[in-house]
């Protein structure tokens, strides 16, 4: 129980800043890195949950630096597996420090992500059992094998005007007759080829070797014409040049919508002039041409993936607005994963699904689960705004009575405003305001607007509300609370409610109003500021369009 006592002591402390977070991160991985032993499973689960929370406070590079510090010896397969699924920099550092037995490696390696298995291949001190498993799984070195890379690079390189390379100026003492490439050191051979090409163009030789892919003028960071890559046997990118790797590693070529790629991978055929579309970071977004050659293991001849090059299509026009929305949606997808994991761990602990848990830890877990749900709700709002502003989301059509919805919600909010001696002075009348939108969508729009106004209303304030259905428009207007009236742009103000009964959302009043405006525009209306008033305009259904509503929709 000595292990559990120390772990419980660390978990009792709260990390209030990055410095404290880093200290607690070190303490936890030190304790969890010991050999597996008996103890409180719920306490260990709480420790991993805390590591996830600390990871949100500590940048990935800092975490990688901590894990890579000399002295760590991670002997717990459970912790090593957890690290293997972390950020690539952190995973690489942890797998370099892991010290497991041969049988433990043999059991763990098949459970690791493919990317993490590739990190292990760089180690030269693994037990025999681990090496055998890596060989059986077809995991090969990240370095290009010898001599195939040179042959491949020569095939992919653009044609050179020089029929033959000039003699190597940097090494005149070498004999004219050279040994076969397969018997030479690959790195020195690449350096000599590069030196020869530079000498032929009259350029000064560089000490840094480069692959013979053809030399072009350096491009600004925003302009990327081509990049080298490698894949695993399933067609998922598991290696790329350092500058581009974070943007493309993990992309599955078979999911990019090209039948030719899927068929070629299944048949182990080369990819030649294959057109694909990449989505993601701005530097890689757009149309590309892929040339790649299949690779096979030397020992048993198993197919282990592709190595090749992406080159950008010259005429590439991208809808920037939709691209920005796509990037945001992709980012939200990545962010939801760790938050869902945090919520899941918290609920397991809070509900005692793996055994009894002290009330203190159940309380902490319940708080984390609630915070996670709040964060996920914010992600949903961000995703909704991105889709609405990009025009890729349509609101559900239908029919409702907006006047009845507004009257009902104002009545509900009055009970919340009363303790603050604040109120809505509503002049909504008894008339109907038929509106071509599904009941739930209209209620969401009205509540987002009214709840934001109520949350920003100060003690003793009175907000005037008016509803006008004259003509062909529903005009719903309100005076602005003092906190919003002073803002230059109410759609970007960061004002947040000070009461727990009402919330403008995780991103504040400005974001909520911007989302309400996007919803109004998607419904054919508009939300704008007119002096000290906020005006919502919606198209009014008139005549034959406005058929009688059921009692539930009419309020």
TrEMBL record:
Residues 160-174 have a biased composition (Low complexity). It catalyses: ATP + protein L-histidine = ADP + protein N-phospho-L-histidine. Residues 160-186 are annotated as: Disordered. Residues 323-391 form the Signal transduction histidine kinase dimerisation/phosphoacceptor domain. It holds the Pfam family HisKA. It comes from the Bacteria. Its EC number is 2.7.13.3. One of its GO terms (molecular function) is kinase activity. CDD domains: HisKA. It is an enzyme of class 2 (transferase). Keywords: Kinase, Transferase. This is histidine kinase. It comes from Qipengyuania polymorpha.
């Amino acid at each position: 129980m000595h292990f559990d006592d120390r772990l419980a002591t660390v978990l009792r402390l709260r990390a209030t800043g990055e410095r404290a977070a880093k200290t607690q991160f070190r303490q936890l991985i030190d304790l969890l890195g010991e050999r597996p032993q008996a103890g409180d499973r719920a306490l260990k689960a709480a420790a991993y949950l805390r590591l996830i929370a600390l990871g949100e406070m500590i940048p990935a590079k800092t975490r990688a630096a901590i894990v890579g510090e000399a002295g760590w010896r991670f002997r717990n397969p459970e912790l090593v597996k957890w690290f293997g699924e972390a950020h690539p920099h952190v995973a690489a550092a942890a797998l370099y420090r892991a010290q497991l037995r041969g049988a433990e490696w043999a059991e763990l390696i098949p459970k690791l992500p493919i990317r993490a298995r590739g990190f292990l291949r760089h180690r030269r001190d693994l037990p025999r059992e681990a090496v055998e498993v890596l060989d059986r799984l077809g995991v090969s070195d990240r370095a290009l094998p010898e001599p195939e890379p040179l042959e491949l690079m020569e095939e992919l390189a653009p044609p050179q005007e020089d029929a033959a390379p000039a003699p190597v100026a940097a090494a005149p003492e070498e004999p004219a007759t050279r040994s076969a490439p397969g018997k030479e050191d690959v790195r020195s051979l690449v350096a000599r080829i590069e030196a020869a090409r530079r000498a032929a163009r009259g350029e000064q030789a560089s000490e840094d070797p480069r692959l013979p892919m053809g030399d072009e003028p350096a491009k600004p960071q925003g302009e990327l014409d081509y990049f080298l890559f490698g894949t695993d046997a399933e067609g998922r990118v598991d290696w790329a040049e350092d500058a581009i790797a974070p943007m493309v590693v993990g992309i599955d070529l078979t999911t990019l919508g090209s039948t030719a790629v899927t068929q070629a991978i299944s048949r182990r055929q080369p990819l030649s002039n294959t057109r694909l579309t990449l989505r993601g970071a701005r530097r890689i977004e757009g149309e590309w041409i892929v040339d790649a050659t299949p690779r096979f293991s030397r020992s048993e001849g198993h197919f282990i993936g592709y190595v090749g090059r992406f080159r950008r299509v010259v005429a590439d026009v991208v809808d920037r607005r939709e691209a920005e929305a796509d990037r945001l949606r992709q980012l939200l997808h990545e962010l939801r994963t760790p938050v869902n994991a945090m919520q899941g761990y918290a609920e397991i602990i809070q509900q005692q699904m793996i055994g009894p848990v002290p009330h203190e830890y159940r309380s902490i877990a319940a708080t984390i689960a609630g915070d996670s749900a709040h964060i996920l709700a914010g992600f949903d709002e961000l995703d909704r705004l991105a889709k609405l502003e990009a025009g890729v989301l349509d609101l559900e059509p239908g029919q409702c009575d907006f006047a009845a919805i507004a009257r009902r919600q104002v009545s509900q909010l009055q009970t919340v405003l009363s303790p603050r001696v604040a109120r809505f002075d509503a002049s909504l009348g008894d008339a109907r305001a038929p509106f071509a939108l599904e009941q739930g969508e209209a209620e969401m729009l009205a509540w987002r607007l009214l709840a934001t106004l109520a949350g920003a209303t100060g003690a003793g304030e009175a907000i005037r509300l008016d509803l006008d259905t004259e003509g062909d428009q529903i005009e719903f207007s309100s005076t602005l609370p003092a906190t919003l009236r002073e803002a230059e742009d109410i759609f970007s103000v960061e004002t947040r409610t000070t009461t727990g009964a009402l919330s403008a959302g995780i991103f504040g009043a400005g974001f909520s109003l911007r989302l309400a405006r996007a919803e109004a525009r998607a419904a054919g209306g508009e939300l704008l500021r007119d002096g000290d008033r906020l005006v919502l305009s919606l198209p009014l259904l008139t005549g034959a369009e406005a058929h009688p509503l059921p009692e539930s929709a009419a309020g």
